[in-house]
Design brief:
Two copies of one chain form a homodimer. With about 425 residues, the first copy, chain A, is α/β, with parallel strands linked by helices. In chain A, about 35% of the residues lie in helices and about 25% in strands. The first copy, chain A, has 13 helices and 17 strands. The termini of chain A are close together. At the A-B interface, helix 2, helix 9, helix 11 and helix 13 of A face helix 2, helix 9, helix 11 and helix 13 of B.
């Protein structure tokens, strides 16, 4: 942890950030001002009023907003990279569920989550939406560890009361709701940087009764929601059978008020969202957490990101650890671009692939806005910043800041992160 | 460089290697014997005859064959990760050709190639097929630097006499052939680990006259050939116009004898190979260098690897630096799997995706066989080996060697490589 005073300081370096999907701003040799944990703007020359702030000279380094992971499963970190020859439903049964069951043991959870949080600190992401497991003590433990890290997180105790192995299934809807209330009451007022998010796993694993209970808790505690939507074809077929009265998978959430609107929600994947579902997502201000690597690993498909963006749907990127193996949202950016190019080539030749700058937007400001003012350096945004030493990604000719950013997206790893700030506080150096 | 005597020694550790496409052999706590630079086999307990060999104890470490990169462009390393919003032909004009022109300056080439070779030593690949540029001095310089590295390489001075910018185009077919002869004569007898490979860039850039000249040189010097085949749709359309009498792109090479048969050849990409072309590839014993990341980055498509494998076509993996950004063939393995899953999902539901073990085969024994007996630890194979310390890819539960291999494929980087041996000689530790 740093000795830098978190309140007021200035970073000097080569600064890049998204102003919008289409607009990347780069200021080479610029000043980024942090005032009370928020950006006070980016300047080519430092305004007089900030002259007294301590300056950190990162000349020649890149300064970028912290990255945002809108979707990951904390207990799955332990087995990332395993079971990659399976599709979603088999993979859940063979790998995800047996591993998640172990988190009833808080000693196991402490060891595994400690390793995860160390990894999260080390990487380029500063904000996360995470799934814990069904277990209240392990979920609280995870939140405690995350709070210590200084990262900004929304974390959720998972709800699931059907269609999953006995050893993991919550015994009834009221019992699941009771545990959820316990978790919410215990976490209330306990954290500065960590907050609870309601986490019905996905429609197949949540009974109607459970959805109703969760909707009540949502209203009482004013909670955001995270879940999964239209990830794989087999899953969608299953949802159709489970919810014959719903016209789309999304409606199975919306009918209970668990799909955006008054309370923000973020839905992972949305690979197979059709016109009606896209409209529902848009109208409810629901966020899409695009998890391209997971969607490749589990043979799910390629989400229609160009259509979402054209429609004005809010979207960011997710690692989906461990459907995806890689936690870095830089990797998710390049995965998103690559996947979009294959979609363009094979599925929809009229949907232009994502550009590098668009992917950068998605992984910063796009997902960041789910947390409020985060993911950019515009004045008033919370001060999440990465200082990147890209000197070892050698080029024998000069590069612009924008070109260096592209190389960092494709080629950097945690060794290149010199400092990482979250809400004005240095969490890695 | 190591002090280990390259002739005879034993590595102890957890050993994995492909015996065939379908068979991975893992020996946990096994002995891998190097005798005169070749494998003398893998044993659960060390045979008496090797008891006098020095032993290196890598208990708990993974020992794998060195990886093989069947396709990369040495001068493009400098700009990997740039220009990723372009497709092939525009990308060549905007990035590849202007950069390659700089290699007429040997000082520039020395700086850039030195940085590349350092990077190659550091990574997991032990064997490479590389393209240099058209320039003879820079091609020889590259080969000198590669020889110093201890890596095993086939490197080629590029030939191109049409359809490329004036500043890079060789002025005539005879002039290109003359330069090629000069390059071959100067490199003859000069290297132990580096050898020349004939490198007509691709059909659009090589006139009929040039192809004829190269065919003569091939026979005289008994050279293997590397080139590009059926990479992108626009390129294929172009080849059709240039070679109206050929029934396929492959025939444009085959008609000159530059497509396998007596002299081995390796063709990069083969994304859009149809039945006839696959038959021609098979009948000529031509190798396919599958470059999945490049094919995504340049929106080219996904090569039909399952069809190649089912037909018995010989195939390995390529980084295609800088169409691909990443040099590690571990990355190419996971890219190949991911791409094959999207092909399965969107293009050919009857072509099963590549498994982890199949991708490992392609990146080791599959490509290695282009170099003779390389890419495996079977007795008699040249001793290329990686010692991997995967202890930092933490799991809170025990893993089999096969599971650890999968994680190394998906998650490792150059930090995990503890030692790298090529032909029995340690080139990195």
């Amino acid at each position: 942890m740093s000795t830098i005073k978190p309140d007021n300081f200035v970073l000097f370096g080569d600064i890049c950030y998204s102003e919008s999907l289409k607009t990347l701003r780069c200021v080479e040799g610029g000043f980024l001002v942090c005032e009370n944990g928020r950006s006070a703007g980016v300047y080519g020359s430092l305004p007089e009023e900030y002259a007294s702030f301590p300056q950190i000279n990162h000349a020649g380094k890149l300064i970028l907003p912290g990255l945002v992971d809108l979707h990951m499963h904390a207990p799955q970190f332990a087995f990332r990279g395993l079971g990659m020859d399976f599709e979603l439903l088999d993979w859940l049964e063979s790998y995800a569920f047996p591993e998640e069951a172990k988190y009833s043991d808080t000693d196991y959870a402490r060891a595994a989550y400690t390793s995860l949080v160390r990894h999260m600190i080390n990487g380029p992401n500063t904000r996360f939406c995470l799934y814990a497991t069904v277990h209240v003590p392990a979920a609280l433990l995870l939140m405690d560890l995350l709070e210590e890290s200084g990262l900004v997180c929304m974390a959720g105790k998972v709800n699931m009361d059907r269609n999953c192995p006995d050893y993991l299934r919550e015994k009834s809807a009221p019992r699941s709701a009771e545990d959820t209330r316990l978790w919410l009451e215990r976490s209330a007022g306990r954290y500065k940087n960590v907050s609870p998010i309601l986490t019905p796993r996905f429609v197949p694993a949540c009974s109607d009764g459970l959805m109703k209970e969760l909707a009540l808790l949502q209203k009482e505690f004013r909670l955001p929601v995270q879940s999964h939507l239209s990830e794989s074809l087999a899953e969608i077929e299953w949802v159709k059978q489970l919810c014959p009265s719903c016209r789309s998978y999304a409606e199975a959430y919306e009918q209970y008020g668990l799909f955006g609107g008054e309370h923000p929600s973020v839905m992972a994947h949305c690979v197979w969202a059709g016109d009606d579902e896209i409209e529902l997502i848009y109208r409810n201000n629901t966020y899409v957490a695009h998890c391209p690597q997971s969607n490749m690993n589990l043979s799910s498909g390629i989400a229609p990101m160009r259509r979402f963006l054209n429609r004005g749907v809010k979207a960011g990127l997710g690692s989906d650890i461990a459907g995806g193996c890689h936690s870095s949202i830089f990797r998710a950016m390049s995965d998103a671009i690559q996947a979009s190019k294959l979609r363009f080539r094979y599925v929809k030749p009229h949907e232009a692939p994502l550009t590098v700058n668009e992917a950068f937007y998605l992984g910063t400001l796009g997902g960041g806005s789910f947390f409020g003012k985060a993911g950019s350096f515009e004045t008033g945004y919370e001060f999440d910043a990465l200082v990147i030493d890209d000197s070892t990604i050698a080029a024998p000719f000069p590069l612009s800041a924008e070109e260096r950013l592209a190389r960092v997206i494709y080629l950097s790893d945690d060794r290149h992160i010199l400092q990482k700030f979250v809400r004005g506080r240095c969490v890695k150096e």
